[in-house]
Amino acid sequence: MPHFDLAAVLTDEFRGWLLQGLLLSLELMATTWLLAVPLATFTALCRLSSLAPARWLGFVLVEGIRNIPLLVQLLFWYFAVPELLPESVRAWLYEHNAEFICAAGGLTLYTSAFMAEDIRSGIRAVPITQLEAARALGFSFLASMRRIVLPQAIRIIVPPLISQSLNLWKNTSVATVIGTAELMYQAQRVETASFRGVETFTLTTVAYLSVSLTITALAVWFQRRFPVRTA
Amino acid sequence: MKSLLNVSHWAAQLCVALAGLISVQSAAADQLADIRQKGELVCGVLGTDEPMSFIDPKTRSLVGYDVDLCAAVAKKIGVTPKPKQLAVAARIPELQQGRVDILAATLTHTKEREAVVDFSLNVFVTGQKVMVRRDSGITKVAQLAGKKVVTVKGGTQEPNMRKAVPTVDVVTFETAPQAFVALQQRKAAGFVNDEVSLLDAFGKLGDAQKDYVVLPDSISVEAIALGLRKGEPALKTLVNDALRELEQSGQAQQLFFKWFGPTSRLKYRTRSFKIDSDRI
User: Fold this and answer.
1) Do both B31 and B122 map to the same domain?
2) Which range of residues forms the domain containing residue B52?
């Protein structure tokens, strides 16, 4: 084996590929996060609803998605789902970076299923009497959630939500299998062109780890700054 | 005191054992002797690249041109051939790290790769081409400028395509069949691969062949060879001897027609190369 030489994978060309990959990974995480949090909140509220059909919808969403491997889901979203779409939608998708859109779509559903459970357990951690009191005072279900329960639940929800964001960051790497040019994809390109697997994946590891540790630090900070207050 | 002595004795033994292990690893200078000792030749093959190497649906075992070459080399050494399936991108790392003995994995002999692996005589020569859908109206490789093409990760297809058409957008997948599906689903304008694999895929289309065209101009000519770890002259000599014998006995010709001839999907009538040089 040739000796370890980081400079070999830091030429202008390779560095450019790796940076492009890192940037796209971050974009993929940001897009997915912004879509997944509202979807997860919706799913959690469905599961807590007093309406049976809504509870069933929430249950199917969470259990259906959580129990299928992400790799399978992404391949499904890229190779199968577009074939089921109407011709015009499909043509539009293929004109607009289908690799990124399918990855973001698949990751959003996958991440939201896990986030929904964290949100649901956070809401359930607020004593039910709070909701009952709000309802007794004449607040509607949604209004009591928004004004009474969620503000208390948020301190409980955020730490596990940050930990799901960390999982999301790591999961973006799976998108390489559907040709999304994120960090892993570009790392494999650099490895193929440079024959420097050890150096390439050392750099890639450092890149993933830096972002992961930043997210972890954010979680630690939040827990210190906003500790859970019991009602 | 006694127990302490025991512990130190035990630790010393462990150190000796570890040192022994390390020295065995570094003493393994001659790979050929190792292969003879373990009695098998582990050949890295793709298994997703019909007819070079693929899984026979009836027997569920790996077969193909590359697998037969592996068997011929193993026979020459006097050991059992053992094909092992690899991803395109994992070929050279697996060879370097000693998880396979040789590569019979549709590996193109390139100047760049010479820095990290040794090559046998060329065992196959093929061009790389592009398949497009007929209704795209594309008839020349140059017309792919600014369009999206798909291929397999980790091979020479991507760099060759970018060299041929610098403005092309290349998207890669883990296996060539996945890339082919992407073309069929209209996710890209073209599918790049070695000509033999491309013609084989085309052959499998059956009635749908009328909807696809393999563009006539090649983006490169690929000399395919077996890959060997660097600095193993004894093994390299033996592998090349085995290949030369195949050529001289006419078996190489038979192998070619078995996998690429008129009775195969590829229907080649003539063989345009001989296994006699490692020039690229």
Assistant:
1) yes
2) 25-126+223-260
Residues of B with CB under 8 A from a CB of A: 89, 92-93, 96, 112-113, 115-116, 150, 153-155, 158-159, 171-174, 178, 181-182, 185-187
Number of domains in chain A: 1
The range of the structural domain enclosing residue A44 comes to 6-225
Q: Is the pLDDT of residue B41 over 50?
A: yes
Q: Are B247 and B276 in contact (CB under 8 A)?
A: yes
Nearest CA-CA distance, residue B214 and chain A, Å: 22
User: Is the Cβ–Cβ distance between A37 and A168 less than 8 Å?
Assistant: no
Half-sphere exposure of B236 (CA within 13 A, CB side): 15
Gap between the Cα atoms of A33 and B72, Å rounded: 55
Q: Would you call A99 and B182 a contact, using CB atoms and an 8 Å cutoff? A: no
Residues B203 and B152 in one domain: yes
Provide the CATH number for the domain around residue B91.
Answer: 3.40.190.10
For residue range A148-199, what is the model confidence (pLDDT) as tens digits?
A: 998 999 999 999 999 999 999 999 999 999 999 999 999 999 999 998 889 9
Residue A2's pLDDT is what? 64
Task: Judge whether B64 and B52 are in contact, CB under 8 Å.
Answer: yes
Which pLDDT does position A125 carry in this prediction?
Answer: 93
Q: Distance (Å, rounded) from C-alpha A212 to C-alpha A170?
A: 8
Q: Is the ipTM of this complex over 0.90?
A: no
- A77 vs chain B: nearest CA distance in angstroms? 13
**Residue B51, preceding peptide bond in cis (omega within 30° of 0):** yes
Strand partners for B83? B43
Q: Which of A83, A99, A192 is nearest residue B171 as measured by Cβ atoms? A: A99
- In this complex, is the C-beta atom of A177 within 8 Å of any C-beta atom belonging to chain B? yes
Read off the CATH number of the domain in which A128 is found: 1.10.3720.10
Please determine, for residue B26, whether its predicted confidence score (pLDDT) is greater than 90: no
Is A1 inside a domain boundary? no
Whether pTM > 0.80 for this model: the answer is yes
The answer to whether residues B122 and B137 belong to one domain is no
Give me the pLDDT at residue B57, please.
93
Average pLDDT of every residue of chain B: 90
Based on the fold, state whether residues B135 and B84 are members of the same structural domain: no
User: If you search the block for the tokens 């006539």, which residue do you land on?
Assistant: B216
Residues B29 and B121 in one domain: yes
- Which regions in chain A score pLDDT beneath 70? 1-2, 230-231
Helix (H, G, I), strand (E, B) or coil at B43: strand
Same domain, B172 and B186: yes
Domain tally for chain B? 2
Query: In chain A, which residues have their Cβ closer than 8 Å to the Cβ of B150?
Result: 179
Q: Within an 8 Å CB–CB cutoff, is residue A125 touching chain B?
A: no
In a domain, B198, yes or no: yes
